[in-house]
Prior knowledge:
The structure is a single chain. With 229 residues, the chain is of the alpha/beta class. Helices cover 49% and strands 12% of the residues. It is built from 6 helices and 6 strands. The chain has a 6-stranded parallel β-sheet, sandwiched between helices. The chain is elongated, with a radius of gyration of 21 Å. The mean pLDDT is 93.
Amino acid sequence: MHNTVFMKAKRKVLFFFTGLMVICCLICMGINVYVVLYAKPYVYADVEQLPQKYAVILPGAKVYSNTVSHVVRDRIEGTLRCVNAGKAERILVSGDHGRKDYDEVNQIRQYMQKVYGTDESLIFMDHAGFSTYETMYRARDIFCVQDAIIVTQKFHVYRSVYIARKLGLDAVALEAPELVPYAGTLHRMWEFREFLARIKAFFSVAFKLKPTYLGEQIPITGDASLSWD
């Protein structure tokens, strides 16, 4: 008798948690579909088709002591294509410079100047772009960006545009060119990470979270050197 009651209770609990997991999975999938569909009309693969904006936002990624990762290099390449095609007038490099021994933004700037000869007066640097959400929030509130082209990889463009536009930026995105095609395994890892990141972005926007740091405004229309320290 006791065993029968116990088994029935166990089945009910199992059924409840199974149902709860299914609902959570459906919600997560729904959020991902919503983010992608919302952003898709603003994503471009061809520089020539891009509408003109004032700035290009280049989100940071992994750098090394004396160079940048292939992910960053491709974003730089796409960014400079936008500028050279007359699609934007300024560049905002945003990344992680939260400690002395790791500096994405200066490494990216130096690479752009050394390899591509980029005019330093065009490059603004956001040292506290610790996430895509913080990059877009600070672009709006610190650098007074109103309209922008975001240059990043295809897996990342939808979340970037979603956040930017939900924060009030007139933003579009260019899929960064793959100068050397990425491995399939790497793509799958990024896609899985992005699935989770879109959920986080959805709630960050919904709850209007504040970035780690704000501070004095450095308008993107002004002197780029003010952002270099």
